[in-house]
Amino acid sequence: MRILVTGGAGYIGGVFVRAALAAGHEIMVIDNLCTGFEDSLPPEVEFVRADIRETRLLDPLLARADAVVHFAALSIVGDSVADPVGYYRENLGSFLTLLDRIRLHGPHRLIFSSSAAVYGSGEGRPFDEGDPLLPVNPYGGTKLAMEQTLAHVAPALGLNWLALRYFNAAGAVPGHGERHDPETHLIPLALEAALGRRELIVFGRDYDTPDGTCIRDYIHVNDLARAHLAALTALDRGVEGVLNLGTGRGHSVQEVIDSVVRITGRESVIKDGARRTGDPAKLIAAVKKAEECLGWQAQYSDLDEIVASAWEWSRSLYKDRG
Ligand code: UDP
Description:
The protein is an alpha/beta fold and 322 residues long. The chain contains ten helices and 14 strands. The strands form four sheets. It has a seven-stranded parallel sheet, with helices on both faces. Helix 2 crosses helix 4. It is globular, with a radius of gyration of 19 Å.
């Protein structure tokens, strides 16, 4: 299949690009590099540096594509709180352009990167796809708006689609991992702390969880990539709608810190801080629907394995071999 990957120079998009090439697909990437890195793209990729709204550049790619996998989006919760209008303009605005140009040029397959942020806080049990959608921050709001837009627009466009709700993407593959600037995610920050590059602040120890720190469902980024490949196949079997992508298991912030100590063998400077606005106590995926619809399962079931893959990447990023 010839696949157009928006945001293919980013963290999750880049891992998908590698997995798709390895599976024999032809890959075109459109990315404005606002958060991605051109040097992270494998040489086989046909790359166009452009914003999706540059339709003159987008249209010829769509015309040649058999499927679109749409990763491109802004994804920092704190930034979305500071600039909600900007977040809706960028995420929803470019998605509307993408759908409009798909209407004119095709293709008829679309995989969309959604997020567990659409659920909001919940009651602590694993979220399934039928749960109420009550995002607690503008970022989650943009993802929900995009999902709803897609559901309404797809029939008129003859578009087969899946929206994949990622829980906490984590880990790395050889040569490609998380590289956000500034970094806000727990595992890369904890690893930077292990490298002595910073201190780690634990955002709250007074949550209603066994050790008082927040619980998240960390899914290895290569498992996410594999799920996208399975989703492309599933589209042609008539599978459509929204699916959670997680492991179904949760780990607390303290458990992540303990894992980082085990994997790196280093003690870090860790301080206790206040809760971060908008952080739910517990976010875990119910994964049965994705497993059934995609014939897929997360292969990384162990937090230490995920942290170890991220550690390899962090060390190469910061050239630490010691
Ligand atoms: N977290 C933390 N310190 C940090 C960054 C994150 O304690 O410097 C916590 C955060 O409060 C949340 C968990 O780690 O409970 C995962 O946060 P992350 O930003 O990685 O992902 P999110 O769940 O917000 O998408």
